[in-house]
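[recover] target loaded
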């Protein structure tokens, strides 16, 4: 996301790749669980995934969010920081499961619905910056729709859709992060992420 021409120099470099790398690594740690791999359902495996969620999903995104706020990037800071706390809950949930305790499905469902509303609005907001960021948020929307439908309709088969959406989220996260770091290193666009879908209204309109 580019800053206005007259904007002050940012305090930090662009922290977005850090947040996206953390997201991708945390998602990767959940894939064996999401696909129902037998070895991933043991207490040790669940605890291992939990720590990846905490250190990469939560910590990387929290740090990137705080740096974004310091750079006056409210949109990026809000998304990364909010999502970081969700990864803390993923850490807690997996830790509980590893000890045979199941978190409340009713509470998680209510929060998932709230998250879906948040991400739908954020999807529209990111459409003012990049087509791929818009698709990235659309995938998160789809992931939450599938999670909610699986819980409400009691259709375990929808879990495969959640797993596939997580795979796509991992891939898009890595692509955008690679695009940003390669552009920073080379001074040119190597992996395009596309321009905005929506055009902001001029200030005097």
């Amino acid at each position: 996301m580019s800053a206005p021409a007259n904007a002050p120099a940012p305090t930090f470099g662009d922290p977005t790749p850090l947040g996206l790398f953390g997201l991708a690594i945390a998602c990767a740690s959940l894939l064996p669980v999401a696909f129902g791999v037998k070895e991933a359902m043991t207490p040790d495996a669940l605890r291992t995934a939990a720590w990846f969620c905490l250190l990469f999903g939560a910590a990387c995104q929290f740090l990137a969010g705080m740096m974004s706020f310091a750079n006056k990037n409210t949109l990026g800071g809000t998304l990364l920081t909010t999502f970081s706390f969700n990864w803390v809950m993923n850490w807690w949930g997996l830790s509980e499961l590893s000890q045979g305790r199941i978190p409340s499905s009713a509470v998680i469902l209510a929060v998932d619905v709230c998250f879906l509303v948040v991400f739908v609005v954020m999807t529209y907001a990111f459409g003012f910056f990049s087509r791929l960021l818009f698709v990235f948020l659309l995938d998160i929307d789809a992931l939450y729709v599938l999670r909610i439908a699986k819980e409400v309709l009691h259709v375990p088969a929808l879990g495969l859709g959640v797993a596939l959406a997580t795979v796509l989220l991992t891939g898009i996260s890595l692509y955008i992060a690679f695009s940003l770091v390669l552009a920073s290193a080379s001074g040119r666009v190597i992996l395009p992420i596309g321009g905005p879908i929506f055009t902001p209204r001029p200030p005097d309109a």
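[recover] notes: The chain has one domain: 16-186.
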